[in-house]
Design goal:
mainly alpha; about 170 residues; single chain
Length: about 170
């Protein structure tokens, strides 16, 4: 089978910050760790998507740092507690961690990233949308929000005897 090109030591540079191949390869390993063979075309798309995601995350991290946005440990503790409430018991939560091969540290990092992004969006005034802007956007893109008229047809097939007359 054809192999993807080798991964360079630095997969990208974002505003002078290098993204090392180790981060890239860790992400690929999460997807391919189940041992199944992934076709080259699909693996190439996965690699492209992973690289885009790592670049996006680096850009977000740089903006969080520039804006001085920090998520406290107390906020993370509260978010993890809320997350755990999705499970009826601690045993179910621990079972989820085992089955999904996820650690509590990974959940904490996801919560930190989620809350940091929420704070960034809330702080960014240029992301605010007025009601007039929303109405204008809807008016110019209305076709995406409307269901088109449609006809649904179905056939009912009945088995007939081979010698049945055409009228039957």
């Amino acid at each position: 089978p054809e192999e993807p090109p080798p991964v360079p030591e630095v997969v990208a540079k974002v505003n002078g910050v290098e993204i090392p191949s180790t981060r890239f390869l860790e992400e690929i390993a999460k997807i391919t760790s189940r041992g199944s063979q992934v076709p080259l075309e699909r693996l190439t798309r996965m690699r492209d998507n992973i690289l885009k995601r790592l670049i996006d995350q680096e850009l977000i991290d740089q903006e969080l740092k520039r804006q001085g946005i920090v998520v406290s440990d107390e906020e993370i503790d509260a978010a993890v507690t809320e997350y755990k409430q999705r499970f009826r018991t601690e045993e179910q939560f621990q079972g989820y961690l085992r089955n999904s091969k996820t650690t509590i540290e990974q959940i904490r990092e996801r919560m930190r990233a989620k809350h940091a992004l929420q704070k960034l969006v809330a702080k960014s005034s240029d992301l605010a949308v007025t009601e007039d802007e929303a109405r204008e956007f809807y008016a110019t893109h209305e076709r995406f929000y409307l269901d088109k008229e449609a006809v649904r047809a179905a056939h009912i097939l009945i088995e007939l005897d081979e010698k049945a007359p055409p009228e039957a």
